[in-house]
Amino acid sequence: MVDWVGLLIPLAYLSILIGSLATFSSLYRRRKAQKAANLAPWFPPHLQRNIYLSLLHLDPQDPSSVPEGSDKSLSQIPDSIVRAALLRRAVEDIHRIIQIRNAKPALQTLLQRGSVGDELWQRFLRAEQEIEEEVKDVVSEANALVPNWGQIIFQSANEIANNQLAKQRMEDIQSKLPEEKAWWDKKKQGISSQFMKELDDEAAGSRKGSVTSATNSRKGSVVSITGQKTNSDEDAVLIETPGSAKKKKGKK
Q: Could you name the Gene Ontology cellular component terms for this entry (predicted)?
């Protein structure tokens, strides 16, 4: 006969173990999802998307959909304004996509080095997933407004985003222009003063050299004159004739 008592103990152990693992797994997943939901968003609220959705859900037949204090004519939203709002939404998505692409390699490197925690990486992954869903939503909305517009809306949005970045860089350069001009004027004054100082030093050196050369020339002339006189006296002493010697003896 089969020993059922001996089999029930391992089966009960396995069932308890499997149940414990399943309970732990479900609790872990629930806690992880709750923690991910409580994470701070990577990007600020999408204002352009909220504006587009507000315009899209305005019902022309329902005056209550228009905010209080606003003109009732705003309930008649032209299609051009809706398309412009969707294009601005796509432009903001382009900016966020650029930020995601630029931040991902650096964040991966920091994560491998242990410089950042898993919480920041989870926030980034959630932002990346949200931007992918946002792109799909914009494409579907563009195709709903204009046939085949979803294929080219992000090309137009990319051109607008590049123009905005170029304009922003130009404004930054223009804002720094007075500071750069003041720095360059100060630098130019310093260079000019240093150059004038070098010219003055060079002129002073040339004057000193000319005075020294003149003094040396005067000393040389004096030495030459003195030497000539000394030589003439020595010659006068050394040169004597026999007649002159006899005359001197006769006089004595």
A: Sec62/Sec63 complex
